[in-house]
Amino acid sequence: MTDDAGRLRQRVAQARRLVVKVGSSSLTSADGGALDLGALGALVDALAARRTGGGQVVLVSSGAIAAGIGPLGLERRPGDLATQQAAASVGQGALVAAYQAAFGRHGLTVGQVLLTANDTTRRSHYTNARRTLERLLDLGIVPIVNENDTVATQEIRFGDNDRLAALVADLVGADGLVLLTDVDALYDGPPSRGGSRRVPFVAGAGDLDAVTIGGTGSSVGSGGMVTKVEAAGIAGAAGIPTLLTRLPDVADALAAQDVGTVFAPVAATKASRKRWLAHATTARGRLVLDDGAVTAVTQRRTSLLPAGITAVDGAFAAGDAVDVCAADGRVIARGLVNYASSELPRLLGRTTRDLARELGPAYEREVVHRDDLVVL
Ligand SMILES: Nc1ncnc2c1ncn2[C@@H]1O[C@H](COP(=O)(O)OP(=O)(O)O)[C@@H](O)[C@H]1O
Ligand SMILES: N[C@@H](CCC(=O)OP(=O)(O)O)C(=O)O
């Protein structure tokens, strides 16, 4: 173990505030149809020890859909969104009840927090989610976060919880992120392929060049290793180290033992909400800018006005996320747009003063306000 890796393992182990994410495959029986209460109990024992020792823990738990498979009499994880939502609706209650019983044995209380990607990127919702989590932690509760699967539509879903966990770690200013899955570490190739070797430390993106990353190895997981590595990148961009390992190794991981893979963070640069905007939103369309507007947005960090926009693509509503592009199509920023796509064409190239005079004061607003714009 290099010194750097050792130091990062200590940082995660000693985190005052820790976000731990557990995947469906770690919480369900081998056939994926029932909650594995033994595994869940072992996880809770490790987290409760941390909590009663004075640390704060946010648990991001998948498994709602998997936990709904049995009660709904299904054979396997459903493929269509409506049945997945029905399974999540049934399974989420069972999941949280199991956690409450297990944490309750340690004298701890849990609080359910269901988030959707779309909601949380809006400023008021974002601040609200942060306030709720902060208050729960202040009150000594263990928040249990999941995506709000029953209302999330295909377009706005996280789908897997890895990215959500990284964003929650950023939201609460965690000191470390632990991703628990069904494989003990990142390997330099899919573990099903013989000869793959454990990667104990990822110092930077370059270390991933020699790694072949595959999709999910289980019947209930959804993201595979790709989304875990992405999540480590998102947490890393917020200055948070990530430790990836399997559930049975969680106690060792929390004791800084040499298990799993530790990912080094980089120095955080952007404001937290802007990182959400960059990583949590899906663009519904594109705004193409002239060169002057590109410079204004990227270098002077101004708001985007109608005068600098030359074209609009896609169908979006006011408040949706859009990609902001240079004339050659390069995406230079992501932002929340203040107009619907149907409204924009007649505003393009016009000054806000003209528009306000002609159409009324409501048209003096920016197309994307600088606070809702993240330069990529
Ligand atoms: N390079 C790799 N190293 C480790 N695991 C990998 C790699 N490529 C693909 N995988 C697969 O990713 C799976 C974990 O993802 P997933 O099943 O989605 O878990 P979870 O339900 O915990 O989110 C592992 O079971 C493994 O088979
Ligand atoms: N929100 C979903 C998560 C879906 C899922 O399978 O995620 P994961 O196991 O983390 O790849 C659920 O609770 O079932």
What's the architecture of the largest domain, going by CATH? 3-Layer(aba) Sandwich
**What percentage of amino acids are in beta strands?**
15-25%
Spatial strand arrangement across the major sheet: 3-4-2-1-5-7-8-6
Low-confidence stretches: none
CATH superfamily of the largest domain: Acetylglutamate kinase-like
Query: What small-molecule ligands were found?
Result: adenosine-5'-diphosphate, the ligand N[C@@H](CCC(=O)OP(=O)(O)O)C(=O)O
Helicity range: 25-40%
- Listing every helix as H and every strand as E from the N terminus to the C terminus, the arrangement reads HEHHEHHEHHEHEEHEHEHEHEEEHE
- CATH class category name of the largest domain: Alpha Beta
Largest sheet: 8 strands, mixed
Indicate how many domains the architecture comprises: 2
Instruction: List how many beta strands DSSP finds.
Output: 13
* Count of alpha/pi helices: 13
Gap between N and C termini, in Å? 34 Å
Shape: globular
Overall residue-averaged pLDDT value: 91
CATH topology of the largest domain: Carbamate kinase
**Radius of gyration, whole Å:** 22 Å
Helix/strand/pairing class, anyone?
alpha/beta
Give the tags:
376 residues; alpha/beta; Archaeosine Trna-guanine Transglycosylase, Chain: A, domain 4; 8-stranded mixed sheet; 5-stranded mixed sheet; binds adenosine-5'-diphosphate; binds the ligand N[C@@H](CCC(=O)OP(=O)(O)O)C(=O)O
